[in-house]
Amino acid sequence: MHVVFVRGPTGTTVATVHRADGVSLLLPGNDRKFRVPHDLAHFATEREFEISGGVFGAIAAGGVFDTMRVVAGKPRHDAAARSKRILDTHRPTLTMAELLAGVVHRAVEDEAADRLPVLLRNAWNSLGTDPFPWTDEHIGRAGRTLTELAAEWEAQGTVKVTWPDHLVARIPAARGIRRGRRGRT
Predict the structure, then answer these.
(1) What pLDDT does residue 4 have?
(2) 109: nearest Cα among 51, 149, 139, 162
(3) Strand ranges for 9-50 from DSSP E
(4) What's the CA dihedral at 142, 145, 149, 150 to 10 degrees?
(5) Could you report the per-residue pLDDT of 9-30, keeping only the tens digit for each?
(6) Beta carbons within 10 angstroms of residue 147's beta carbon
(7) Domain ranges, ordered by start, for the chain
(8) Contact, 17 vs 1, CB < 8 A?
(9) Over the range 111-145, which residues count as b (16 or more CB within 10 Å of their CB) and which as e?
């Protein structure tokens, strides 16, 4: 999946997402007050932490958030129901991704990426008691990736990135639909 971040007409970020199924969608940002686009922080954090059920993995699988709109291609006949299943199934991961991306975003925005390990682990503790599942190497990569993307954004006003195919969210089966052959007699 290819994603192009550009500065919108009102100064906010607009991402155009070109999915593998031929559908292109606009993902408007709400981040005029930030130097670094928030959705770019999601991209960097989710990719470096290999979170398939976050914002971009869910979009790659067919999830469409309320603020998005289709700008090209023909969605599947069951696109709305499929999107709902994807977003509902991955809601806990989406919440976790929002928390992590928010911390990475703030740290890079405030030029405090050196504090990311402590900040992320403290934020993680707000989700429960499970141990933090990523290494300092993952954290460092997330901070560096977002810093590099932010520099490109500031210099060019646009960033083109590719979402890895192996990080597409799992698509839950539709309920009530039986698949396969009926029993033979």
Answers:
(1) 98
(2) 149
(3) 13-18, 24-28
(4) 60
(5) 787 899 999 999 999 999 998 7
(6) 17
(7) 2-167
(8) yes
(9) eebeebbebbeebbeeeeeeeeebeeebbebbbeb
Query: Residue type at 173?
Result: A
Residues 44 and 5 sit within 8 Å (Cβ to Cβ) = no
Distances (CA, A) of 138 to 45, 80, 121, 165: 9, 34, 12, 19
Q: How far apart are CA 63 and CA 85, in angstroms?
A: 8
Q: Which of 104, 128, 105 is nearest to 118 (CA)?
A: 104
Residue carrying structure tokens 């911390």: 103
Two tokens at 16?
């155009």
Distance of CA 24 to the CA centre of its chain: 15
